Task: inverse folding
């Protein structure tokens, strides 16, 4: 039987043990110090998004933003996609989201 996923033990440096997707995607030139700072921030955001979904069960990006208005919606969406690509989250059905636009629900596996 597969063992349950534990986010606290899965993070290892800039990548997780499961999968090879990076948490931070460098698109501009950065010093090593800046890169470390942004990698740590994106990993922290991933953990926050995972924790909110663990507590809620499922949510859209805008529902998560309502709970953490200090986070950028683009950072929430990046975290959702990063965690989905790592197999940590599952992208679900579309529901009506903010401003009448459809949004996907995300949830934990199982």
Result:
């Amino acid at each position: 039987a597969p063992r349950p996923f534990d986010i606290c033990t899965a993070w290892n440096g800039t990548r997780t043990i499961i999968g090879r997707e990076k948490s931070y995607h460098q698109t501009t030139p950065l010093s090593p110090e800046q890169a470390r700072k942004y990698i740590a921030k994106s990993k922290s955001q991933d953990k926050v998004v995972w924790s909110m979904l663990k507590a809620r069960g499922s949510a859209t990006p805008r529902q998560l933003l309502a709970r953490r208005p200090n986070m950028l919606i683009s950072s929430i969406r990046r975290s959702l996609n990063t965690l989905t690509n790592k197999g940590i989250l599952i992208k679900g059905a579309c529901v009506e989201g903010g401003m009448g636009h459809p949004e996907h629900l995300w949830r934990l596996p199982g």
